[in-house]
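Shall we go through a protein fold together, starting from nothing but its sequence? Label the sequence line and the structure token line clearly, so we can match residues to local backbone shapes. Would you write everything just below, so we can both look at the same thing?
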Amino acid sequence: MKQRFAETIISFLLGAAWALALLGAIFLFWSFLPFGLIVALMAGMIGSLFGLFLVVMLEVASLQFEKLRELKRQREILESIQASLNASHDATLRDH
């Protein structure tokens, strides 16, 4: 499957967003651990929110590229069906 440059960049940024989510969660978890385990877990969840938001946005962009590729493929199939229907219709008209 051929990927365009934008799709390659989105894939790279998606990996970076996952790393950011993981690092944010780990950093805030260890930073707030002296205040208690519950507080540290909450801080870890909050620390991962920005990275997870970026993951969702980049996944949406990736899905849009896939949707565009699928629509182009379906258009080509429909055009070939239309061409064969027109050819068979023209052949039927010539026979009468």
